[in-house]
Amino acid sequence: MVALNTNRTEKLMKPYSIQEKRYLKAEAGFDEDTYLNFDELANKYDYSSEEHSVVTEDGYILKIFRIIPKCETNGRYPVLLMHGILDSSDAWILAGTELGIGFILARNCYDVWAANHRGNSYSRRHVRLDPNFDPEFWDYTFDEHGNYDLPAIIDHILQNTTQPKLNYVAHSQGTTDFFVLNSLRPEYNDKISLAIQLAPVAWMKHIKSPISVVVAERTTLLKRLLDAIGLRELFAKNHLIHFVTEILCQVAPEPICGQVLSLTVGYKQGSVNARTLSVAFGHLLNGISSKDAAHFGQLVTSGHFQRYDEGKEGNIRRYGRSKPPKYNVTLVTAPVVLFTAKNDWVSSQKDVGILMSKLPNVVENYVIPLSYWSHHNYLWDPQAAVYVFPKILDYLNKFNPIT
Predict the structure, then answer these.
(1) How far apart are CA 302 and CA 20, in angstroms?
(2) Is 126 a catalytic residue?
(3) What is the pLDDT of residues 98-149, one digit of tens each?
(4) Which of 176, 282, 376, 391 has the fewest CB atoms found within 10 Å of its own CB?
(5) Is 375 a catalytic residue?
(6) Residues 6 or more apart from 96 whose CB is under 8 A from it?
């Protein structure tokens, strides 16, 4: 592994940052689950975990965590968990033992692997590039998550478990990564036993979030502005905005952070326990590239599920054509179960309908039978124990060999 070059004179790429001071948070009365990392959360709740490093084909060093099952797997394929945008592997366990799907799967004899895509706080390393100084580090979107991150992660898991296949469970952008992977590298379909997609995101033509629509309409201008001021990492865990959000969500989780979710994803206030909400916002805002955000904006404005639009000349250099290619999801032949919601402003029923019409192997589109259910209820709502987790386990048991 090549060490990062720290002898730099270029402008620092990470402005307005603040270091995490745990002792200050403890003294201020923060719930400790707010700032514990993945291993610490797992160990606190009596689960054994491992850290693994994976190097992608283009040099990004990703950290993934493994939760050791509580019982014999009896031949069951491992489960790969992939988080959504602005999130991390912590998403799958931060809600505790009864709502953390990572804990639930391990308790049900599954070998659980929680991944982190490039650029979040766990995967902020590269064999050559320094994220604090090199703009090139942030030159990626979910296209690279699917084309480079997922293949490296999947191959690492299969090599370490000596299994021919794995199960894939994802939320939000983690589902986007999957559709990208199997569109661009369809050979990976054969390595997936079953894909369970919570709040799937591909087409975004009918997104209901007014804030997201307004921002998307200004994608090009905002991206140019951010590039001009050298801000290519957004909403990072070591930025001031995360620290302020973390404090506010400790003081008033529902009035402040619940309201933020209501305005962006359609969340019904009060549907998630206040403690869970405060803990969750200690782990959210985990960093993305400005280019990733711009790519989603392009999906909204174009109405297509397509690769990043680099402009006419950039597209010709990258794709050999003046317009970006569309992802061919008809090549996604692995069996897929979709979990969707009536009040999800990001993963709308109309857009999921477009996706369904093109996927060749949809086992079921399961619509949560609660009218208020939105984008993050899958991970935090107590009713997930009734409407989500049993169905996930039922499908995994059907698609996995038990010896």
Answers:
(1) 39
(2) no
(3) 999 999 999 999 999 999 999 999 999 999 999 999 999 999 999 999 999 9
(4) 391
(5) yes
(6) 33, 45, 103, 276
Catalytic residue among 117, 304, 375, 376: 375
**Amino acid symbol at 53:** S
* CA gap 304, 295 in Å, rounded: 11
pLDDT at 2 (0 to 100): 38
CA 65 to each of CA 106, 114, 120, 126, 400: distance values in angstroms, whole numbers, following the listed order: 13, 5, 14, 18, 22
Of 49, 121, 123, 172, the catalytic one is 172
Strand, helix or coil for residue 215: helix
CA distances from 206 to 86, 130, 201, 375 (A): 21, 38, 11, 15
pTM (predicted TM-score): 0.94
**222: how many CB neighbours lie within 10 A of its CB?**
16
Strands (E), 136-261: 166-171, 192-198, 233-234
CATH 3.40.50.970 fits 22-396, yes or no: no
